[in-house]
Write a structure and sequence with these properties.
489 residues; 12 helices; elongated; Phosphorylase Kinase, domain 1; 4 domains; six-stranded antiparallel β-sheet; alpha+beta; Transferase(Phosphotransferase), domain 1
Length: 489
Amino acid sequence: MVGELIADRYELEELVGSGGMSSVYRAHDSLLERHVALKVMHEQLLGEGDQVERFRREARLAAQLSHPNIVTVIDRGEQQGRQFIVFEYVEGENLKALIERESPLPEREAIRVALQVAEGLSFAHAHGLVHRDVKPQNVLLTEDGRAKVTDFGIARSTEVHHGLTRTGTVMGTSDYISPEQARGGHVDASSDIYALGAVLYELLTGDVPFHGDNFVSVAMRHINDPPPSVQEQRPELSPRLDAAIRRAMAKDPDDRFPTMEAFAAELRACLAERDGAAFGPLDQTLIVPGARRRRRPVRGPMERPTVWPLILLLGGLAVLAGVFAVVFALTGSPTKFGPALHKATGGATRSAPVQLSGLSGYDPFGTGGEHDEDARLATDGQQGTFWETEHYNSSLSSLDKPGVGLLLDAGSVRKVSQVTVTSDTPGFTAEIQAGPSSAGPFRPVSGTQTVGASTSFTIHNARARYFVVWITDLGQNASVHVNEVTAKS
């Protein structure tokens, strides 16, 4: 109760939150003359031994962690059988309140917050502790904007194989729960990676990844539905950031980032890429890379809508038409000058071939080796030669990872309207992706299609130097061949 004195030291001043197991109060520490947060277990749970032990274990585990992005445990104890834990008091709000008030967040701010959470969780994982309930409500924001992870109430040591929260028990919050956690399966650090990916999705879109009528329906969508794309909600966001979130939320834990630190490293790279696009010192102004790509190029003198260039152009066309008339009168055929006149008068031009060169395999979710030395065979003009993937378990009709690809170089930045793939192992599923460098990031620029003996992909809005034939399903093949890839502008 407010006004109560706990352990002859902590005076409860205000109730700031309550959950199924405990209530949290702002309290005054009379010994050190400071405010603290005091979590008190509900009295009705005191007779349940497993709940009491879980509460005590939270204090023991959280007390092991000292990190700028984790709320610090100061003290623990009990009074008349009531368990309590004392934490540092964070002046500010939780992340869910920020989302409800200001979402969607600017790209830079969302990455910055998620990166701090990732760093705190990475530290916990390094000390053998998995949080298992990562959600915005469990992230506190200080007044100066620092994120701190709190509430390790259902955390589990990575060293423990049996105990209060064993395999088969579903715990966590359904909006952010990993597929394996929703199934009651084995939960490890990868589950925290998934949950943080879902939190970052919400920061950027203002909405949770999946909706449903109840816990079970939402959990089933986490198990079955593919990870959503933030770019579908906000097309101006970085393709690399979109790919990072989808990788963090991969259904199979083996397809996610191998560690929370690896996820944090990718978020740092996304932040650096975003800030680099500002062409200046870091600041709070959101400058979207996509906005620069859509900027209309500076037009040359002949393109500007002034009167004299138009007069000269019309005069030139009149002369050209006269020449054409003379030639037609002498030869009876317009074919020699027809195409030139057609182009000069603004008619449609025929597409031209774009020469592609096979660089290597592209395997960001695997070991990195996919017959790199044979990539050139996919662009050598010979249908009898090919690049191929590694061999996978064809009975699964999948790669057991998001995909693998063939990296291609157009030699310079080119506008491509069509890519044609020929193969003597038809039946696999693929799409075409494009990117600014051989290292990516790459974004889809075509629809997904089942590749036959020869399949043409229509390319949407792609002006790039590097392209990837991105294979997402092998069909009934143990490996697939790409015999030849051609492109048109």
